[in-house]
Write a structure and sequence with these properties.
Layout (H helix, E strand, L loop, with lengths): L15 H22 L3 H25 L3 H11 L4 H13 L3 H14 L4 H13 L3 H14 L4 H13 L3 H6 L1
Length: about 170
């Protein structure tokens, strides 16, 4: 894409096509250096083979992570602990696996690091609502609404909780 569509200016999926050009350029440069190297060509070939083996090993070991989304996102969190998206995807993976306690543990771990993010409070509120803890759900949705005033999803969640608890006046205000 010529115009970045998200806040992530560098993203792997945007580098696939340009990397083909870089690979062709490097291959051409290597061929030219190899052609001019004379007696040193065998050392250059051995160095290239070692480099290809190293990167081949890295690819195979990384592919093992892609076989399990929990492993993938746990590794992403370990590699980049300041990446909120990695934490959020890890928590979502726990929820898809049916481990709601694991998901809640991750969201609670996110709070000190990303305290200004309304989505964390919203997700915790949804989980509290699912387990029947309406008081906690309302508190979490109210905090999310404070952080993101006017967010339609948060207002809907908070309004439905107010309505379910009989506080119809507050539900109408939203």
């Amino acid at each position: 894409n010529l115009i970045p569509l998200t806040a992530r200016l560098v993203a792997e999926q945007r580098l696939y096509v340009p990397s083909a050009g870089v690979a062709l350029l490097l291959g051409g440069a290597f061929a030219e250096v190899y052609r001019r190297s004379g007696a040193y060509g065998k050392y250059l070939g051995a160095a290239l083979a070692a480099l290809l083996l190293f990167f081949g090993y890295k690819i195979v070991s990384r592919n093992a992570l892609w076989s399990n989304e929990l492993l993938l996102w746990a590794q992403a969190v370990r590699e980049n602990p300041s990446n909120m998206r990695a934490y959020d995807n890890l928590a979502s993976s726990f929820m898809r696996a049916g481990d709601y306690e694991g998901a809640e543990r991750i969201y609670r771990k996110m709070l000190p690091r990303f305290s200004g993010e309304s989505s964390i409070y919203t997700n915790l509120g949804v989980m509290a609502q699912a387990r029947g803890d309406t008081k906690s759900a309302i508190g979490l949705f109210e905090e999310a609404a404070r952080l993101a005033p006017g967010n339609a999803d948060i207002c809907m969640n908070l309004g439905s909780m107010y309505f379910l608890t009989g506080n119809r006046e507050k539900a109408r205000e939203l």
